[in-house]
């Protein structure tokens, strides 16, 4: 078993989800610098518990941009395939990026229910929910198949890379908090 090859394969497969998940942070900063308004996905509405559904940090602009950039990543992967696969990476990119964004919004929903404000950390939900939903959706739609070891690689890699990338985004000024 060649662990480096396995890690690179899994990283290549889940790249559209990573791109989708990171894009809204860049879009939010860009819209702020351009002094353009963001439009919350929840339209400012509250859930039955009286708390916001998702909060202002989850915008239509970020959602659409995330899905679009993840799908474009899949398109580029289709042009330059690095692994042997019969999977259409354009479709996989769309599904992975849609799943990643759904997982991110679901995480915000969970955090609002337990009283956390946008930007406050929730271990494992912040780092992993987006990739679990993205991969789960891809598997449920029979677009992707992963071994248990591939799942282990995806979750471990995502946990570590999410922490590192958020720290870098904080250092360079893309995020206000290092998580």
Description:
Helix content is 65%, strand content 0%. It is mostly helical and 179 residues long. The protein has one domain (3-171). The longest helix is centred in the first third of the chain and has 31 residues, at 3-33. The mean pLDDT is 94.
Q: What descriptors fit this protein?
A:
single chain, 179 residues, mainly alpha, 5 helices, 0% strand
Present the secondary structure layout:
Elements: H1 3-33, H2 60-79, H3 89-113, H4 125-140, H5 148-171
Q: How many domain units? A: 1
The largest pleated sheet is described as: none
Low-confidence stretches: none
- From the alpha carbons, calculate the radius of gyration and give it in angstroms: 16 Å
Structural class by sheet pairing and helices: mainly alpha
The total of helices stands at: 5
The fraction of residues assigned to DSSP E strands is: under 5%
N/C terminus separation: 34 Å
List the helices and strands in order: HHHHH
Query: Roughly what percent helix?
Result: 55-70%
General form: globular
Q: What is the overall pLDDT average?
A: 94
- The counted number of beta strands is 0
Please sum up the structure shown.
65% of the residues lie in helices and 0% in strands. It has helices at 3-33, 60-79, 89-113, 125-140, 148-171. The mean pLDDT is 94.
């Amino acid at each position: 078993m060649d662990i480096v090859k396995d890690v690179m394969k899994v990283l290549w497969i889940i790249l559209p989800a990573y791109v989708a998940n990171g894009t809204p942070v860049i879009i939010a900063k860009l819209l702020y610098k351009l002094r353009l308004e963001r439009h919350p996905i929840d339209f400012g509405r509250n859930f039955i518990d009286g708390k916001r559904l998702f909060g202002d940090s989850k915008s239509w602009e970020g959602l659409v941009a995330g899905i679009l950039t993840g799908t474009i990543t899949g398109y580029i992967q289709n042009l330059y395939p690095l692994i042997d696969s019969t999977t259409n990476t354009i479709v996989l990119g769309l599904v992975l990026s849609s799943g990643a964004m759904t997982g991110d919004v679901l995480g915000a929903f969970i955090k609002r229910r337990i009283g956390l404000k946008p930007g406050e950390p929730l271990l494992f939900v912040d780092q992993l929910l987006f990739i679990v939903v993205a991969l789960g959706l891809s598997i449920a739609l029979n677009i992707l198949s992963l071994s248990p070891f591939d799942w282990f690689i995806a979750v471990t890699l995502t946990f570590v890379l999410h922490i590192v990338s958020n720290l870098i985004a904080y250092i360079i000024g893309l995020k206000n908090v290092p998580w």
